[in-house]
Structure formats: C-alpha cells, structure tokens
Design brief:
The protein is of the alpha+beta class. Helices cover about 50% and strands about 25% of the residues. The chain is globular, with a radius of gyration of 17 Å.
C-alpha cells in the first residue's frame, strides 16, 4: 500500500513505464518513527529524501537557543534537508516527527543511480527542486513583507487540514515568524 501511494504521487509528475516505476519504487525503503522522533538531527548528513506516507513532520534549526521552524509537511509530501542532501554535508537542520510517521526514503546513492538508469527520473528531481525553491522564495517574501494576520490567513488557505489542526501553535508561530502570543490574539480575533 505505501509503495502504491508513492507510485501514484510520482505519476502525478511524470509518466513512466510499469517496469521503470517498479524499479523506482524498489529503491525506496519503509521507515517508521515515533512522535517526537528525529528523521534527521543537526550535524548529520542528510543521506535520504523522504516521502511521507502518513504522519506530520517539521524541519527546524536552533539559533540562540530558540527553535526556528522552517518547513511543515504531512501525508504525501517530501522532506529532507535539501542543502545537506545535495552537497552531502552536515545539516544545520533537524527533521522531527510531530506524530507517529511512516516514510519511504531513497538514499543519495540510489537517487543518483536512478538518474543514470532512467533519464525521465531527472524530471522528478527537477520538479522537487523547483517546488522547494518556490516554497522557500514564497516563505522569505511573506516573512519580510506580509503582515502577521495575512500570513496566518494564507497559511490556513494553503496548508493541509492536518498541518493546520495538528501542528502545535508554537511551531506554527515560529514557521510564520510571529510571536506565539500575537498568533493567539490573531486566532482569537478571526474566530
């Protein structure tokens, strides 16, 4: 079942023959993480890209003793510390599960092998890179120029219900660059 979800998701990007698709999904291995468990800890090399079968995760780094949430992902999303993954260097980020999470992961080496064996697979890599870049650019713009209430309303409109309902307020506030107290007031005012 998890591999079928992955197949469907991949086919939403690019068409592959059944043989190619079987080879691709054979490179992904199943992982299970407990709530509050770490998919990646800072200073470790991000050796995998993870497809979230089910669960909820956040990516964050620590600055001056404070956790700064940079990304939230749930079912059928991809997550990695992409800079660390691409360069195979130590990550400054942590990827933590906010609830029990199951992923299918592909290693850097397996990803490179698929690029060599199946030229169309590079298109999937490009699409994931483009989505990551657009997400980062959008987030940077909003952090610097959009008022807090508008940021929160946009978050509600564009995030999955699971992320909105199950992510602790503290992490949402950090992700949006808003003080938790301010986010509480905003939520109270729009209720």
């Amino acid at each position: 079942m998890p591999h079928e979800l992955l197949k469907q998701h991949i086919l939403s990007f690019v068409s592959f023959s059944e043989q190619e698709l079987d080879l691709i999904v054979s490179k992904f291995r199943l992982n299970s993480y407990e709530a509050k468990g770490f998919i990646l800890s800072e200073q470790k090399v991000s050796s995998d890209v993870h497809f979230i079968v089910t669960g909820l995760v956040r990516t964050y780094y620590v600055r001056d003793g404070k956790e700064i949430t940079t990304y939230l992902a749930s079912d059928q999303g991809f997550v990695s510390s992409y800079s660390s993954f691409i360069h195979q260097t130590r990550s400054i980020e942590n990827i933590q599960c906010l609830e029990p999470t199951t992923t299918l992961s592909i290693s850097y080496g397996e990803m490179q092998e698929l690029y060599r064996l199946i030229p169309q697979w590079e298109k999937v890599g490009r699409i994931l890179a483009e989505q990551t870049l657009l997400c980062l650019a959008d987030r940077l713009f909003k952090l610097q120029s959009v008022p807090a209430k508008e940021k929160y309303l946009e978050f509600l409109r564009t995030s999955s219900d699971k992320i909105v309902r199950r992510t602790p307020l503290l992490h949402i506030a950090s992700f949006l660059g808003i003080a938790p107290e301010s986010l509480s007031r905003i939520r109270k005012n729009i209720s």
